[in-house]
């Protein structure tokens, strides 16, 4: 990674926003000892959201300092900061209620994440802030993030969401895994039962937002027997078709859900034939999440020599219709894009940035570590796009 020195200046769209709420400043907070920090923040949230809606000066336009190769982290943090339901969860301190309800004292990662989100959205100035306290917590949770090596943004997102989920999981005592026979049920009912079973042990705001359910169908080529498996997913890793030209996101999804033949050593055991048979396997989406994270597999999985595909993947900003990938007829399968984590450069060295649509103004901004600048929505789709954040159109507020 080339050493990138960023100036700590922030570009703002028009004139710099006036400090709308000077009382949130550190010194002011100390002068009002009767008001707790959480009270102050929750009182502030309503005002902030209203103010941001009515004002041309959108909040949340605060850069994050690069602590040394931490652009992968900054890029993902900005995408999550612009995930309005998660942002509101942090601003309202709802995570505290979830924590109190399950009597756990340790929630350092969620606390730091919420604190960082609150700082981004309540900061009176647009000066870049340091995510060092947050970094301390994520590396405690996942020691692979100790130090200042370049990391993969999608892997970081997985670790972070998993960490946040574990701390605010509404389930404190996980039920014993019982083997239940759902074979007599309809496919739809089976999917629902499997989903409820999942929620019995994994249930949090993070799951509410990001987790969907994938159905995998295995069909025997001899007897035609079809067995199905339902698995939760936190994101979908999409292969990119090898081509000299550009491909579309739908092409990637079609490749991901394409019928796959399992033969030779891969032959699974057919439940009806009771022997290993050549089978076909196919994925469909059983349950669409509110926030759909699509990861474009630009890096080859071979760890010895990684290479990067810089194929231009054309993706829509609005009305990504995924109904053709649904297991059943589904109405909630149309999505709008609100954030992209970009990777420029090669597999050996590169740089991460984020493009995010502000949830209050619907304007797009580039987040390049400390710098935040406005951009045209026509520039959002580029060959650097790496992780796409879509929200379900029916839950969109814009
Ligand atoms: Zn069979």
From TrEMBL:
It comes from the Eukaryota. It catalyses: Thiol-dependent hydrolysis of ester, thioester, amide, peptide and isopeptide bonds formed by the C-terminal Gly of ubiquitin (a 76-residue protein attached to proteins as an intracellular targeting signal). One of its GO terms (biological process) is rhythmic process. InterPro entries: Papain-like_cys_pep_sf, Peptidase_C19_UCH, Ub_carboxyl-term_hydrolase, USP, USP_CS. CDD domains: Peptidase_C19R. Gene3D superfamilies: Cysteine proteinases. GO terms for cellular component: perinuclear region of cytoplasm. GO terms for molecular function: cysteine-type deubiquitinase activity; metal ion binding. Keywords: Biological rhythms, Cytoplasm, Hydrolase, Metal-binding, Protease, Thiol protease, Ubl conjugation pathway, Zinc. Its main location: cytoplasm. Residues 62-393 form the USP domain. PROSITE patterns: USP_1 (PS00972), USP_2 (PS00973), USP_3 (PS50235). The keyword Hydrolase applies. Its EC number is 3.4.19.12. The keyword Hydrolase applies. It is found in: Cytoplasm, Perinuclear region. Belongs to the peptidase C19 family. USP2 subfamily. This is Ubiquitin carboxyl-terminal hydrolase. It comes from Danionella cerebrum.
């Amino acid at each position: 990674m080339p050493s990138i020195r960023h100036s700590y200046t922030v570009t703002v769209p028009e004139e710099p926003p006036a400090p709308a709420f000077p009382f949130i400043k550190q010194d002011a907070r100390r002068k009002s000892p009767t008001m707790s920090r959480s009270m102050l923040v929750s009182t502030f949230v309503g005002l902030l959201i209203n103010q941001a809606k009515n004002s041309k000066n959108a909040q949340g336009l605060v850069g994050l300092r690069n602590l040394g190769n931490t652009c992968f982290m900054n890029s993902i943090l900005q995408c999550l900061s612009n995930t309005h339901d998660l942002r509101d969860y942090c601003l309202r301190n709802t995570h505290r209620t979830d924590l109190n309800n399950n009597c756990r004292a340790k929630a350092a990662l969620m606390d730091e994440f919420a604190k960082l989100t609150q700082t981004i959205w309540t900061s009176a100035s647009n000066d870049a802030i340091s995510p060092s306290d947050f970094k301390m917590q994520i590396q405690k949770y996942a020691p692979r993030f100790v130090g200042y090596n370049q990391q993969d943004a999608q892997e970081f997102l997985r670790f972070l969401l998993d960490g946040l989920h574990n701390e605010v999981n509404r389930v404190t005592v996980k039920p014993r895994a019982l083997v239940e026979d759902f074979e007599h049920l309809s496919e739809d009912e089976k999917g629902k039962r499997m989903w409820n079973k999942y929620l019995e042990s994994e249930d949090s705001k993070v799951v509410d937002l990001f987790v969907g359910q994938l159905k995998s169908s295995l069909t025997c080529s001899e007897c035609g027997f079809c067995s199905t498996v339902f698995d939760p997913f936190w994101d979908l890793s999409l292969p990119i078709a090898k081509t000299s030209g550009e491909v579309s996101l739908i092409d990637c999804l079609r490749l991901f859900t394409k019928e796959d033949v399992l033969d030779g050593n891969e032959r699974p055991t057919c439940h009806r034939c009771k022997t290993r048979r050549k089978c076909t396997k196919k994925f469909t989406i059983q349950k669409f999440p509110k926030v759909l994270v699509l990861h474009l597999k630009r890096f080859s999985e071979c760890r010895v020599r990684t290479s990067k595909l810089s194929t231009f993947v054309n993706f829509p900003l609005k009305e990504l219709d995924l109904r053709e990938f649904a297991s059943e007829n589904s109405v909630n399968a149309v999505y709008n894009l609100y954030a992209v984590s970009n990777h420029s450069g090669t597999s050996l060295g590169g740089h991460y940035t984020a493009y995010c649509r502000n949830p209050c103004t619907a304007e797009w901004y580039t987040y390049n570590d400390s710098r935040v600048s406005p951009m045209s929505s026509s520039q959002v789709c580029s060959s650097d796009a790496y992780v796409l954040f879509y929200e379900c159109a029916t839950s969109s507020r814009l």
